[in-house]
């Protein structure tokens, strides 16, 4: 039987709160540090590994974390999730994003439909459509091939797919898998849509409208913006647009689209990159075979996340170390620092994934909780971030845990040797140096040049950023967020916190305002 209890009621958490703290400078110095780097590592899927040597943990703390994982029944709760129990208590829904890439457990049937079969069917429909576009079977009004795909969506319909596209763009160019350039329109700011339309040849572009409900204000506004631009160019918008939506939405059977592909209510937007939301744009951009590799990487990592042993489950271990940092050590933020230009928008996606999921102050039953939950997430790719906010990370008054991501090889394999090392070697040298600098610091009598150290970090390391490793990375962080939500006894799969602003915005547009809202409306000339 599964028990859903608050973190502060668990005996193992009380034990964890009383463990002796680790002196990170001490344990990461000399041979001790070398041994930790060798031993504090867990294999991931697709040749990746999660190395936590520079985290403030030791064998005693890891043993306490293992007890917490067992008492909180993390493995059992994940099993309940992938076997189709109602885990999203706020919306009374199943949570099935893992099912888009593989079946970990029992057949899941909802509303009389085998959901794995449903997701595979839609993936196959998208694959066939993409192949027809690439082969020239589906063309524009003049019989010419489409060369660009533009996704119109916001939140999870934009951040995840955009991050995945950018992550694979260089790899696809080098490996001959680049089929179509992709652009994204998300912000209701008219300059966003205008800028994209100015960059493309609309006559040779196909647009993907992504809206589960078919009623998302920003997305429908941007659709109207695009349709108007197509009409002004003398083009039939219905010959240039497809939809990714639910079967019950007003978009599902509309004549305004070449085709409609379906999703359901059991996959939240921020978890939808492996559904049709990411599948349509990535299959058109790189081909369905590449999207299938991406799904394979995620599926392999999901299998590791389903393991019961904390020390061989990288997502669960990462999650629990994060809980220890948040709830015992009191760290309020986490920086995501990918040393790969391809992952330039990955921190933005993880920001939504983590903060929209675990930014909660009530438990999954709606009762207030008395402990902190999700951290603030931010980040930039290295080495750019080193010349931006690393000053605060190294010498600021707050300690901010760091999650590095690095690869041994570049995506394009185009490099040059300067002063005895290649650019890729310089990139990797920087990430290695930063981990040790943050952990060990450097004493100086001039306090302005003194580095206290004791700044914890982890790193996920791989050979190359490719579809499988990207899928594994995505799965790792999705499952990390899920496990942390389980520990905190919150619902990581709804997002009521985004609703109030939408309601008030509609009031402003309807001129139904008073008080401060009315005055702000005047200031903004609405």
What does this entry show, briefly?
The protein has 526 residues and is α/β, with parallel strands linked by helices. The protein has helices at 11-17, 24-27, 30-39, 59-71, 74-82, 115-135, 159-175, 190-199, 217-232, 276-286, 288-305, 314-328, 346-358, 390-395, 423-440, 467-488, 499-509, 515-523, and strands at residues 41-43, 49-51, 109-110, 113-114, 148-152, 181-185, 205-210, 241-246, 260-263, 333-339, 376-379, 402-407, 417-418, 421-422, 457-462.
Could you describe the 3D structure shown?
There is one protein chain. With 526 residues, this protein is α/β, with parallel strands linked by helices. 44% of the residues lie in helices and 12% in strands. The protein has a six-stranded mixed sheet with strand order 1-2-15-12-10-11, sandwiched between helices. A five-stranded parallel sheet has the order 6-5-7-8-9, sandwiched between helices. A two-stranded antiparallel ribbon has the order 3-4. Helix 6 (115-135) runs parallel beside helix 10 (276-286), helix 12 packs across helix 16 (467-488) and helix 13 packs parallel to helix 16. The chain starts with 10 loop residues before the first helix and ends with a helix.
Largest sheet, in brief, is: 6 strands, mixed
Low-confidence stretches: none
End-to-end Cα distance: 55 Å
User: What structural class should be given to the helix and strand makeup?
Assistant: alpha/beta
């Amino acid at each position: 039987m599964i028990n859903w209890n608050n973190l502060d009621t668990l005996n193992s958490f009380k034990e964890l709160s009383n463990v002796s703290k680790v002196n990170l400078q001490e344990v990461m110095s000399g041979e001790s540090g070398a041994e930790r780097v060798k031993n504090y590592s867990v294999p991931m899927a697709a040749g990746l590994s999660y190395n936590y040597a520079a985290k403030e943990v030791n064998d005693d703390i890891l043993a306490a974390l293992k007890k917490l994982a067992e008492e909180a029944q993390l493995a059992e709760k994940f099993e309940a999730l992938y076997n189709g129990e109602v885990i999203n208590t706020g919306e009374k829904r199943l949570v099935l994003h893992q099912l888009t890439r593989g079946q970990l457990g029992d057949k899941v049937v909802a509303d009389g439909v085998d959901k794995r079969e449903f997701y595979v069917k839609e993936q196959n429909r998208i694959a066939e459509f993409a192949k027809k576009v690439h082969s020239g079977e589906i063309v524009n009004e003049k019989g010419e091939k489409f060369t660009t795909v533009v996704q119109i969506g916001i939140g999870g319909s934009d951040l995840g797919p955009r991050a995945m596209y950018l992550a694979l763009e260089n790899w696809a160019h080098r490996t001959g898998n680049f089929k179509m350039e992709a652009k994204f329109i998300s912000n209701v700011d008219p300059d966003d849509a205008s800028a994209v339309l100015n960059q493309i040849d609309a006559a040779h572009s196909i647009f993907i409208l992504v809206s589960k409900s078919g009623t998302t204000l920003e997305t429908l506004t941007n659709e109207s913006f695009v349709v108007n631009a197509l009409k002004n160019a003398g083009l039939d918008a219905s010959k240039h647009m497809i939809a990714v939506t639910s079967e019950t939405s007003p978009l599902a059977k509309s004549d305004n689209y070449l085709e409609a592909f379906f999703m359901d209510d059991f996959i939240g937007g921020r978890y939808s990159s492996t559904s049709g939301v990411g599948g349509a744009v990535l299959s058109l951009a790189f081909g369905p075979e590449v999207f299938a590799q991406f799904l394979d990487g995620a599926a392999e990592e999901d299998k590791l996340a389903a393991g019961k042993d904390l020390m061989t489950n990288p997502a669960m271990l990462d999650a629990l170390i994060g809980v220890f940092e948040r709830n015992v050590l009191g760290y309020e933020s986490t920086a995501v620092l990918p040393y790969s230009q391809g992952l330039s928008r990955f921190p933005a996606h993880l920001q939504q994934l983590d903060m929209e999921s675990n930014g909660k102050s009530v438990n999954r039953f709606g009762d207030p909780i008395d402990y902190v939950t999700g951290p603030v997430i931010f980040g930039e790719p290295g080495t750019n971030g080193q010349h931006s906010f690393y000053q605060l990370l190294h010498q600021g008054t707050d300690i901010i845990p760091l999650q590095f991501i690095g690869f041994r090889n570049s995506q394009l394999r185009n490099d040059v040797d300067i002063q005895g090392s290649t650019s890729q070697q310089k990139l990797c040298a920087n990430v290695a140096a930063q981990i040790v600098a943050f952990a060990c610091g450097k004493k100086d009598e001039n306090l302005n040049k003194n580095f206290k150290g004791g700044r914890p970090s982890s790193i996920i390391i791989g050979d190359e950023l490719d579809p499988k490793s990207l899928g594994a990375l995505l799965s790792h962080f999705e499952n990390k967020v899920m496990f942390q939500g389980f520990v905190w006894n919150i619902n990581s799969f709804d997002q009521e916190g985004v609703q109030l602003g939408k309601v008030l915005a509609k009031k402003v547009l309807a001129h139904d305002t008073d008080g401060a809202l009315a005055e702000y409306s005047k200031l903004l000339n609405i």
